[in-house]
């Protein structure tokens, strides 16, 4: 049976980990200004903040990935998907070595039901082969060997060439319609 | 041109990092007995040591992966392969979270010419899709989507069903013959 299950690769940042919200929280804490999520629409994430070096500082700072909030509905959605799909977490973590360990710990805290067998930290995702990839970045979706599904984030709202889901409820609906 | 290059996934442990030698060094340091490499032939690695818990202790101890010797010829071989192939380091690191950071640092020290784009740390390797996989473990080679190449290690000497290379010189010869 296992061979017949389809596989889904799921990105972490802005798909199960709310990096936008975390950046807003850290920006407010450091600079005293709360940037609304809407300010991030349609532009690169870093450009949403008046201090454009801030996001670069945050992603290199201890704790940023470790304490990120979970995207709404992600935990329940992955548990449900695992009933019918082989679910893999596939996260770009090599650019920021500190994030390797923090992302591993974060997954252990929030997604302990995901086996270490099913976790991949990589640079580019072009050699990852699954039936589906859920990601927020065109740079990953464009080189995907399976079916690309764009998970809505502020920065990707103007892209129209992908299958798009705006929430984990929509992602479940789309994937289960393919069973 | 880049699209036409073939891709090679290269395992770390016992392929570019000499984990057998490192285990022998650590065993001798802790227990005062030097186990010859030949004692590892044809049996699981841990069984080569009178104290069969030793290897388990080592792989969970800080520094074990970080200070492992480089396999003879690996650095020059990978530099040469990169002239004609897209080379990826694909290492199982998720079972031992500490090894994530240590393996990243080890690569930065010995293989700084490998971009972070081309590094993958994963659990199982079944979703990795490259034209070739060079690995010492049947459990990885059996689920490989490309051509499997077994790199000789003590524990795998009795396996006869794989394309086998005994050294990096042989690996280069095999891969370049496919150009």
TrEMBL record, chains A, B:
<dbReference type="GO" id="GO:0009223">
    <property type="term" value="P:pyrimidine deoxyribonucleotide catabolic process"/>
</dbReference>
<protein>
    <submittedName>
        <fullName>5'(3')-deoxyribonucleotidase</fullName>
    </submittedName>
</protein>
<comment type="similarity">
    <text>Belongs to the 5'(3')-deoxyribonucleotidase family.</text>
</comment>
<dbReference type="InterPro" id="IPR036412">
    <property type="entry name" value="HAD-like_sf"/>
</dbReference>
<feature type="active site" description="Proton donor">
    <location>
        <position position="13"/>
    </location>
</feature>
<dbReference type="GO" id="GO:0008253">
    <property type="term" value="F:5'-nucleotidase activity"/>
</dbReference>
<dbReference type="Pfam" id="PF06941">
    <property type="entry name" value="NT5C"/>
</dbReference>
<dbReference type="InterPro" id="IPR023214">
    <property type="entry name" value="HAD_sf"/>
</dbReference>
<feature type="active site" description="Nucleophile">
    <location>
        <position position="11"/>
    </location>
</feature>
<dbReference type="InterPro" id="IPR010708">
    <property type="entry name" value="5'(3')-deoxyribonucleotidase"/>
</dbReference>
């Amino acid at each position: 049976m296992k061979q017949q299950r389809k596989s889904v690769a799921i990105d972490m940042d802005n798909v199960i980990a709310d990096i936008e919200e975390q950046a807003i929280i850290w920006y407010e804490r450091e600079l005293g200004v709360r940037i609304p999520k809407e300010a991030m629409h349609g532009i690169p994430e870093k450009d949403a903040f008046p201090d454009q070096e801030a996001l670069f500082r945050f992603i290199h700072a201890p704790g940023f990935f470790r304490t990120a909030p979970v995207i709404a509905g992600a935990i329940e959605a992955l548990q449900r998907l695992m009933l019918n799909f082989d679910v893999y977490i596939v996260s770009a973590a090599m650019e920021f070595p500190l994030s390797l360990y923090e992302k591993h710990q974060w997954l252990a805290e929030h997604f302990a039901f995901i086996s270490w067998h099913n976790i991949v930290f990589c640079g580019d995702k072009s050699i990852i082969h699954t039936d589906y990839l859920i990601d927020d970045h065109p740079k990953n979706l464009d080189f995907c060997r399976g079916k690309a599904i764009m998970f809505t984030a502020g920065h990707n709202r103007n892209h129209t060439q992908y299958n798009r889901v705006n929430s984990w409820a929509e992602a479940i609906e789309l994937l289960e319609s393919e069973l």
